[in-house]
Each structure stands twice: as C-alpha cells, then as structure tokens.
Amino acid sequence: MLSKLGTCSRSQAEQWIRAGRVSLDGRVVRDPYHPTLIDRQQVAVDGQPVKPAECVYVAFNKPRGLVVSAADEHGRATVYTALAAAGLPWLGPVGRLDKASEGLLLLSNDTTWAAGITDPAMHLDKTYHVQVAGQPDAAALAAMLVGIDDAGDLLKARRVTLLRAGEKNAWLEVVLDEGRNRHIRRLLAALGFDVLRLIRVSIGPLALGELAKGQWRQLSADEVEALDARKG
C-alpha cells in the first residue's frame, strides 16, 4: 500500500509494517499482506497521515561502478548516492543495470507505471551499445539472434548490428525485448566474447540522447505517456 502511494519501496514498507509503525484508520497493522482500500482507508506512518505522492519520472545516465540499489551490504556507492543532493522524493528503479553497465536508467515513484515498463509480456525494446574484445563475424551475430540456453535461460537478441570494428575490439548495437540477469554478458560469453563496455542507449522510444554521465532529468508528460503500457 505504501509503495502504491509512492512513499517508499515495497521492502521498506514491509519493514515499517512489521515494526508496528503503520496504521489503517487508527489501528496498527503488522501484516504486510493485510488487504487495504487505499481510496477508503486512512494510512499513517508513525501517526502521520500518508497522502499519495506527486508522481515523479526521472531519466538518469548511470555511470559505471554504481549499484542499482537503495543500500548495498558491501558499502559500495549506489545510484542513490549520486542522486542524494537532487532533492527528489523516494524513487524506485524501473528495471536494472548491473554495476559494470552504464547508460539510461529510469526511476519513479509511480509503481504501476514502472511495473508496465518492466513487465516481460510487454516486450519493450531496450537498446544497448556493447564493446567486445575481438571481432564478431556474421556467424556470431546470427548466433546471437538464434540464442543459447544458459542454465535453463534462453538468451537471445532481437536485433544485432555491427557498428564499427577495430583491430582488437568491436562495437555492437544489441536490442532486447526481454531482459534476464546479465543477459547480454552471458550471451556473448557463451559465444566466446568478453564485454568491455555496455551502455543502454534507449528504452522503447526514450533515448539517452545528450544527457551527461551522472546527470538526470525529469521526463516530459509526452515521454511518460509514450512509455505507459496502459496507453497501448
């Protein structure tokens, strides 16, 4: 209920509820799965009424080395470390990028909108520019489209284009319409290629564009609507 109101993440809401900090219509609730009618019941945290937060939608150019997590058990810097001085409300990541990956990351407190974007059934295209060691030939690119089985996961690309090649490495544009954990890295490793850099450059119609590394901007109303699965 608290995450749907845009107040905090689901995990944080569960912690608050189990700690007895949350009440419904004045009665403390300790069950995170207690049925709630948000539009009819008054939710409070530490006795303070909670109102639906204004929806915020942010595009962030994630630098390499940041963890996409609110807190890291190993003390590593997170995307929230980079956004700490921005004065933004609580925002949850819309999908993930691993620590070594870079590029476009969406964050929002609109959990319904976020769920639509990350729903595998939507098959929303995500485009990456990937630098690999070596020079993939036509057969390797074709193999990426066919896919491989890795620990029970079918890993494949929707589209692959060779952008440019040097003597020791090459840049590929890889488009996925679904994403498993370390999808591109695992796929390329199975074909004998190490990933040197991986940059997400677009999600659906939204491009990273000229947004500088480590910087963020709010999405326009048109951009939010273009990504909204409910509008499809």
UniProtKB/TrEMBL annotation:
EC nos: 5.4.99.-
InterPro entries reported in the protein's UniProt record: PsdUridine_synth_cat_dom_sf, PsdUridine_synth_RsuA/RluA, PsdUridine_synth_RsuA/RluB/E/F, PsdUridine_synth_RsuA/RluB_CS, RsuA_PseudoU_synthase, S4_RNA-bd, S4_RNA-bd_sf
Gene3D superfamilies: Pseudouridine synthase (3.30.2350.10), RNA-binding S4 domain (3.10.290.10)
Source species, domain of life: Bacteria
Keywords, sorted A to Z: Isomerase, RNA-binding
Start and end residues of each Pseudouridine synthase RsuA/RluA-like domain: 57-190
Family: Belongs to the pseudouridine synthase RsuA family.
Protein name: Pseudouridine synthase
Species this chain originates from: Rhodanobacter soli
